[in-house]
Amino acid sequence: MSAPHTPAPQDAPEGDHPPLTASEKSYLPSIVKGIGITLQRFFKPNFTVQYPEVGPYDYAAQDRAIGEVNPRHRGEHILVKDEQGREKCVACLLCMAACPALCIHIEPEPAPWDDRERRPKVFEIDMLRCIYCGYCEEACPCDAIRLTPKLYTPTTSRTERVYDKERLLENNPEAQVPQRPRK
Amino acid sequence: MSSPTPQATSLSSDPIPTRQFGDGAISLEPGLGEKDMIINFGPQHPAMHGTLRLILRLNGEKVSGSEPDMGFLHTGFEKLGEYRTYNQFIVVTDRMNYFSAMANNTGFACAVEEMLGIEIPPRAAAIRVLMCELSRISDHILGIGLQGMDMGAFTPMLWSFIEREKVYDVFELTSGGRLTTSYTRVGGLAFDLPDGVEYRVRTFLDRLDDTVRDMEGMLARNRIFMDRTVGVGVLTRDEAIDYGLTGPLARASGIDRDLRRDRPYLGYEQYDFEIPVFTDGCVYSRYQLRLAEIRESAKICRQVLDSMPAGEINALGSKATLPSKDDVYTKMESLIQHFMLSMPGHGLKTPASGEIYSATESPNGELGWFLISDGSAVPYRVRVRPPCLFAFQSIREMIQGKLVSDVVATMSSLNVIAGELDR
């Protein structure tokens, strides 16, 4: 616990700091000191990332904290496929309920398979509305939707940014790993 | 008051409706003195930190009256809270104070836990403290850098951005987001700390000392900086109390108040740190105070890392947190609990008429949350007490009778975050 603050002594007219000395008033010491510090910095390693040439995650050699693709990065979604290539989603609508931005739209239909009752007929994510918070992934009880570290997603029209089920199933196939290491 | 000026009458026969601000210290009505002039400082001005508007009534270069006008970034966050569940609102708190999202996440989660009576595990509390203090460091160091930049010292600002990037790297590694972290949940955290965070935080803290020393070397005892800051924007202790200031601004005015010590939460009482207090209440005192707080926060971070407890990060017994994914995939009980928390119409069990005011010490001061629950998973009312609101109001006292250049210096020392101010 901290000690109670003792008020500044009364004989210090400037309060929190002593007055400037005559040499400090002449600007010269500050200028010399400032140039000295800046010169020291000049010879230290450069922090800037040459972005278009060097990707945001390629800077392990440049003393940045993250040297590889961060598995927790919250990028674009995918719908995960099971062993038979079907979507894992059972249209329980939990992700729709968990989404704070209300960007997920699901219409369920009866599944033609024996191991589940429902599957999504329509599964749309409005990527322009999405705030990439990862709550859908957290709410999913069967690991059917994941956020991937995919970063670059430019499109030329707004309608392309509404991803339908096919797009989500094909999105970023290398992220179809068995289980994402998150928790 | 003198008669209407010729310009005012000749502009139009149908006068533009003018707005009266506050107690009428600023009026756009005719009747200004001959030398008086109304200047809009902001909302689009490079020296304004965000979309803030300050209407200045100038007499020559002296400020003869001023009126802060807020609401340009009004986003309806409080109203949004009435349509989002408690956990969903954590996402909104990121956007409220984008300088220190982790501190806002933590503050809101603590308030809900206090209302529901949830005790979080010690590891979750320690991680929250670590993240709060890191965001305090990044907030303060950027505040000092921008303060220097507004006085013309451009170099320290770039160094402060480097340190902030390193903090954001830690945040990204931990939570998956740099700025919008959304890291806490009611009853715990979203994820545990990944491997390597401790090493990265420790190396960051070691190099932070060098940067803080360099920044201090560039600014402290520099006559140009001191001429612009010492005795500028003074707020006395009584005025600070009257305006309800908290945090760095209050401590720079001599008010020895810090919620981390006076109302300990998250186990702050186990860490050894000082609350720096300065008495002048000028811009230079605030700069000194933020520097001192950075050093204290670094001290807390080291202590947290040294004494990081092991164990769970979620209060699993409280039935307020989602069970782990492995349990959800394999155990029926956990699956049921997962559905009970996630289904629409279900969710957190809240008291039928619960009320709580809970405050944490965010980098800018006391960040308070007033929550009313109605028994559903959605709050009845979410009221935020943003520290910036009081700081921005008090600028009227600070700049009265000062020069226009002092307004810039004072404004940058307040560290007002527009998103939090207007909510």
How many runs of DSSP E, i.e. beta strands of chain A? 5
Helix content of chain B: 40-55%
Helical segment count of chain B: 18
Strand order of the largest sheet of chain B: 1-2-3
CATH superfamily of the domain at 86-318 and 387-420 in chain B: Cytochrome-c3 Hydrogenase, chain B
Structure description:
The complex is a heterodimer of chains A (183) and B (423). With 183 residues, chain A is of the alpha+beta class. Chain A has two domains: 23-68, no CATH class; 77-175, Alpha-Beta Plaits, CATH 3.30.70.3270. Chain A has helices at residues 22-25, 28-42, 94-98, 135-139, 165-170, and strands spanning 77-79, 104-110, 118-126, 145-147, 162-163. In chain A, strand 2 (104-110) and strand 3 (118-126) form a beta hairpin. In chain A, 22% of the residues are buried. Residues 1-14 and 59-67 of chain A have low confidence and may be disordered. Chain B has 423 residues and is mainly alpha-helical. Chain B has a domain at 86-318 and 387-420: Cytochrome-c3 Hydrogenase, chain B (Orthogonal Bundle). Chain B contains 18 helices and eight strands. In chain B, helix 4 runs antiparallel to helix 5 and helix 5 runs antiparallel to helix 6. Chain B starts with 5 loop residues before the first helix and ends with a helix.
Provide tags for this entry.
heterodimer; A: 183 residues; alpha+beta; Alpha-Beta Plaits; 5 helices; disordered N terminus; B: 423 residues; Cytochrome-c3 Hydrogenase, chain B; 3-stranded antiparallel sheet
